[in-house]
Amino acid sequence: MDPIFALNYSEFCAAQQLSRMFPSSLGFSLYAPLSRQEKGVDLILARRTRGSTIVATIQVKSSRTYSRPSHTERTARPFRYFTWFNRFDPPEEADFVLLVAVYPPEEARASRKHASWWAPVIMAFSTQEMRSFIRSVKTRSGKLDAMFGFGFDDPNAIFQTRGDEHRRFRDFSRSLLPHKTPELRAFLS
């Protein structure tokens, strides 16, 4: 019997998006560790240049996506979709952390053009950025919050909805993977 290797769906989504942004035709390769016990590393993005290989190790975290059918008077900022991530310690082994959420966009339901009813929203942080962010995740009373979250209506703009003690709805759109591609390219140069 042959052993079976499988990726978590969130890791698959991240790998799929990374392979589109970092094609093999430009010298990039994407790897997944064979051992599921590989601490802190879910994916490895590599670039081979001038006989050497430069790699970026990536940790992937995922969230369910929740939708609110309607907002109430108590809703401070109504978004169509919400994510909730558990607080975690960013691993030293990872160079980057990707936060992945899969959601059902309305336009996919209405059109047969799309291959899937599901689409990913992926945020990218360097490990240092993620550590700094995690330290800032607090409740309104200033205590450490066990969770943090983001809200969005479309995949081009995303805002912090939980984990900010001042409830400022901080804009994290610059952390979306398409905006972080230059930083990843620079890291692999």
Ends apart, CA distance between termini: 42 Å
Helix content, binned percent: 10-25%
Structural class: alpha+beta
Number of domains: 1
Major β-sheet annotation: 5 strands, mixed
Sheet-strand content, in percent, reads 25-35%
- List low-confidence stretches: none
Q: How many helix segments?
A: 4
Protein model, in words:
It is a single chain. Helices cover 21% and strands 31% of the residues. By secondary structure, the chain is of the alpha+beta class. The strands form 2 sheets. It has a 5-stranded mixed β-sheet. The chain is built from 4 helices and 9 strands. The protein has one domain (9-187).
In short:
This protein has 189 residues and is an alpha+beta fold.
Blueprint (SSEs and pairs):
Blueprint: H1 9-21, E1 28-31, E2 43-49, E3 52-63, E4 65-67, E5 81-86, E6 96-103, H2 106-110, E7 119-126, H3 127-136, E8 147-152, E9 159-162, H4 177-187
Parallel strand pairs: 3-6
Antiparallel strand pairs: 1-2, 2-3, 4-5, 5-8, 6-7, 8-9
Characteristics of this structure?
189 residues; alpha+beta; 5-stranded mixed beta sheet; 21% helix; globular
